[in-house]
Amino acid sequence: MSAPKTFPDGFLWGSATAAYQVEGAAWEDGRGACIWDTYARTPGRVHEGHNGDVACDHYHRYADDVALMQKLNLGAYRFSTSWARVMPDGRTVNRAGLDFYSRLTDELLSRDVVPWLTLYHWDLPQALEDAGGWPSRDTAYRFVDYAAAVQSALGDRINFWTTLNEPWCSAFLGYGSGRHAPGRTDGADALRAAHHLMLGHGLAVQDLRSRDSSLTLGLTLNFADVTPADPQEPGDLDAARRIDGLSNRYFAEPLFHGAYAPDILEDVRELWPADLVVDGDLEVISTPTDVLGVNYYSGNTVRGVGPDEAHAAADQARADGPASDSVGSEHVEFLALDVERTGMGWEVRPQGLTQLLVRLDRDYTGPAGTALYVTENGAAYDDVPDQDGFVQDDERLRYVREHLGAVHDAIEQGVEVKGYFLWSLLDNFEWAFGYDKRFGIVRVDYDTLQRIPKASARWYAEVAGSHQVE
Ligand code: PNW
């Protein structure tokens, strides 16, 4: 057996969730409708018509859930606040909504769990979608007001603030492919949404910084490891450049270099709205941040295809998860190679995480002095509970072990990675897949809402307690 991998002192061991996926209590204490409430009620959008009305009932069970975190030695909890709970119409503050997050924060602090807050994990108030949604520039300004309201309630107790979770998903799945709420399918709107999300991020960082210069600020992006099917084949190399560009560099370049990459702009030229970028926007977007959250699940192998094959390839891509759904991904085929896959069908590629962290450090965060945290990593598998509801989830355990090994490899190569948040603490509402896909290290019995830690949770508790992966 190889030597145990020891992580640096102060490394944060956490788990993550998001408001719409776990809270439930969708219509309590004045919460307004969000785009996922609407989308989930639209026939054919979400597996078997599931929705987040009850979810894990975390809204009522948060104290028990935080106690469980402490029992599992978790030092940090990444959660998101629901904009529609805090501002039911997207504009007016609802005290009762803020109070929930205040109670949650106090509970975490009382159990020595560091709160890590995400302001936007995809649940835009429906009223703001009705007013134009993210393709409308005004939404970025509404986001700043929302951020300020949350900061004024929780800023005295929470140090880590991230603005957005995975703007790629919000923009490209929400407004491009329509596979996420609000389910719109307009390439130009997807580009508008992406720009306004990033503008909202930059404006919010500036505003939060001016309110309290001691806050630790940043955002979370999702990344995929993209490789060409044949590195000697120019068409495959170009396909890999294009997908890497749209899924990875599209957000990182403006944030860290203050400009959209010219090759990607060229790829989306026909869709690009001429009036989209206003003078000064890129300076706002590239406002320096303290942390970059990295969400990593999978790798993709891509091949360039001719125009005739492109449509068939686009259909195939639906099943391929991360990175396959970008605007401008025509002429690219995502190969279904004979590799290990999770219950989502996503390729298991731990070494891709090492390469990604090394690259982010070299190209973006290292020079900027921005710290890296893995804010999501984990896997869905088809869990089989025994009579007591216990799940011996060896596959998930192995997935996490290998990815933690990959993080450790990056640290050994000199990359400063300061924490890891396992997705997810609980089985929860997996977006378009409803409750059918389970990512939790803790099983949720949806009939009784009972929580039952899986084998992976017991194992992760030992890792978090010892700072070591055997
Ligand atoms: C992330 N894709 O979602 C989210 O941040 C979580 O809320 C989610 O539960 C988790 O990963 C697991 O899916 C993604 O299709 C959803 O590329 C879809 C994609 C990527 C990330």
TrEMBL record:
InterPro entries: GH, GH_1_N_CS, Glyco_hydro_1, Glyco_hydro_1_AS, Glyco_hydro_1_beta-glucosidase. Coiled coil: none annotated. GO terms for molecular function: beta-glucosidase activity. Keywords: Carbohydrate metabolism, Cellulose degradation, Glycosidase, Hydrolase, Polysaccharide degradation. The active site is at 376 (nucleophile). It catalyses: Hydrolysis of terminal, non-reducing beta-D-glucosyl residues with release of beta-D-glucose. The keyword Translocase does not apply. It holds the Pfam family Glyco_hydro_1. Its EC number is 3.2.1.21. Belongs to the glycosyl hydrolase 1 family. This is Beta-glucosidase.
